[in-house]
Every structure is written in structure tokens, then in C-alpha cells.
Please model this.
Amino acid sequence: MKPVLAPAASRLRQLPARLGEVLIWLSVLPFFVLCWFAHPSADDFLQANDVAKHGHWGYVSYLYFHWTGRYTAMLGWSFLNPVSYGHDKAGYGLVCFLLLGAMLGALVWLLRTLLRGAGLTARQLGQAGAGLLLLIAFQLPNTAEWVYWLTSAFNYLVPGILLLLALATLTLHIRQEQPARPYHLVSTAVLLVLAVGCNETIAVPVLLTTWGVVLHASRQQRRPVGWGVALAVSAGCAVAFLAPGNTARVVEEQVASPGVVGCGLRIINFGTYCLVNWLGNGVLVVVTVLLVPVFARLARRPLPLHQLVRQPLLLTLLVPAFLAAGLFPVIWVSGNVPPPRAQNLLYLCFTVNWLLAAYAWVFYFVRSAPDLALFRLPAFARWLLLAWLPLVLFTDYNHHQRDPGYRFSTNNTLLAYRDLLHGRATRYDQQLTARYRYLRSTPSADVRIDTLADRPVTIFFSDISPNKDNWDNRAYAEFFRQKSIVAEPAPPW
Model:
């Protein structure tokens, strides 16, 4: 009997881990499924019209001199958005899916690079990457502006992917034996230059962090270290910040800076608000506590990750400092807080920085006091916390979940499943598909169409309005070759 019972007992012990793995994948699944229900809106159509006028490369040049210096994002808008090739729906969801898959792939590759030597299987690394993706997606301020609106995705999702890849290539460079091969460092510089060309929200903290790391490493080693990377990032920021289009945009939008004091106070105020909301629901804190014993076991192995976490205090200070630097550009220029799409990117960086800082402290104490009882979480506490996490996934404690504004501390997984299972995403897709068919077949005219009856909160960004003179209405009409288009309330059933 013993040989028969042993495998059964082993499978029983593995059951909680298997259930956790299934729960993680089921929790990220709806975000991938919803990609196929995504539709273009707002700037997607405006950009497509300008590409048709100026050509793909001409559009990039036009934007640089008339609107923005975000050179990487402009390439995405011009060359990688299907709408820029005259499509309405075709290929749009596929690009969303590929970008989300690239985010998952970047997370897995980063973990594989950091934890090389830990003995993790491909399946375990995939599960860990999916878990980290879930941790990021779970309470993003706005999922619609994360991946389901491509104009925003090239601005704010792509730089997140690039930063994860840059951290991985930097780790590969650091762990090399001397003499180190330069191509990993060159790859890091290229990825960072591409990242700062996506938006100012990430460019400023990346610039400051890069110079901080380079100066600190050069001082420690008493020789120049990584100056080429810092200079490359500085050059990228100069190209983006000094674009003539930035000045033209500020003048056209008539924004005004709140000044040094006003900017500082708003950064402190809103930065504190972000930290309270991102940590206040307890999800990130509980996951970190549960990971402490895992961190302690990993800290006893020779891992490439340890080259990055030798300064726990500096990594801890980086968490709020990176956030504050990210908030600075928008608040300094306009006095307004960054839009939800920019907050999405800041939350991604915050999550990664938080976990690195937490691991750094565990690594520090493992080296100082390897037998510290803190690393051994009591069984009852571990099981209570593990039972609490699935409960969170099936509830939504934010009564502002349908608020079109900032949706902090929201269970996005539950909202995604609601949009799918309640048919809201399907009806949204069907109505827009029928609208495109009608607009393509109708001769040029002053067209009136029904407003959207279903607006799935997880993927809907915007729609045209009853005012035909709005810029998005005009862009919509030009794209579909109509004189004008307005949206009217749907007729009663």
C-alpha cells in the first residue's frame, strides 16, 4: 500500500499550489480575452487622418514640430496602429493582445534573469510572471487606458515593457565575468532611450535614476561606470523635451505652471494619496508578507538579483522618489495630476520598486542574522492570508467602480469578468461593428448615429458626442469620409 499512498499524499500536498496556479491564470485570462473586444477611439482616428495626409514618416516629422517630442510613441502610432492603415476594427485587438503578451513575456524574462540559479522550472517562472502581471493589473487606475486604447498603450504600456527588459539586460551585464561584453550594456542603453521617448512621466524619473545609479557606482568603484548609458538617456530626453512641438502644444492648450511651491505641494499631496490607495487595500502588503519566506530562501542562493539589492535603504527611498519624479512633469506644466494612463505606468514602476526594496531588506537581514524568526511565517497566519487573497478576487469593495474618473483600489479582475459574462463587452463590440458597416456604406452626409448603449468599464475609453464640432467628432467623420457625425441617445425599447 505504501507505494500507492505516497504519490497520492504527494499530490494532496501539491493541491493548494495547483489551485493557486489555476486561480492566478484565471485571474489574468479575462484581460487577454477582452483584447478581442477593443475598438479604436479618439486620437486613433485623428492620427490615422494625419498619416493619410503626411505619410507614415512625414507624420512623425509633423508631430515632432507641431505637437510632441515623444519619438518612440510616434513610431508606434504611425506604424503599429492598424487604424493608421485605414482599418477600423481589423487587427486592433490583435495588437492589444500582442502588447499584453509582451508585458507578460517581459515579466517572465526578467524573473528568469534575476533568479537564474534558483532552480525554477519554465512552468514556475510562467506562473510567477502571471502572478506579477495580476498584481499589477488588479488595481490599475484605468484598464481601458492601459492596453485597450492603442494611442495610450504606445505611450504608457510600451515604456513599461521596455523598462522591464532594460532591467533584465542590466542584470545580464552585471553578472558577467570580467572582461564584460559590452552588448548587454548597449542593449540597456537602447531600451532606456526608447523608453524615455514614450512620455515625460517616465522620462524624468528614468533620467534621474540612471544618473543616480551611475554616480553612485562610479563613486564606489572609483572609476567611471555606465556613463555612456547616462549620456545616452540624457540625449534621448533632450531630443524629446526640446522638440518644437512641445512648445506649440503648451501654447495651444493654454496651460500654466503652478510654480515651484505649488508644484511641490501638489506632488506631496497626490503622491501620498497614491501611496495610501495602492497600499491601503492590503493586497500588495499581504502578498509581500507571504513572499518573505520565499525571499529568505532565495537570499541564501547565489543569484544575479543580489547584485541589484545590496543597498536596501536606497531602494526604499527610490519607491517614493520615483513616484514624485513621475508626477513632476504634468504637475509642473499644467498644475493637474497625471491622467489615469500615466498613473498606470507609475503604478507598474511602484510595484516593481516595492518588491525589489522588500527583497533587499530580506537579503540584508539574511546576511546579518540568517536564523531570524521573522523569515518563518506561522502556519496559521500563512493560511489565513492565503485564504484572504482568493476572497479579495471575488469581491469589489470600491463603490465607485463605474465612476469614469480615477478608480483607485478597484478589483479589475472582477470588473473584467463582469464585462465578459454579463455580455457588456459583446454588445459593445457588436454595436460598434454595425456602426462601422453603416458609416462605410453611407454616402457622405451629416450622419446621426445612436450613442453606445453598453460601455464596458474595463475597455471603454471614449466615444463621439452630440456636438459635431468636437475634435473627436470631426476626426471620426473625416476617417469614415462623412461631412459630420453626431451621436444621439439610443431610442427607447
User: Anything to note?
Assistant: The beta strands are 446-450, 484-488. Residues 399-408 have pLDDT under 50 and may be disordered.
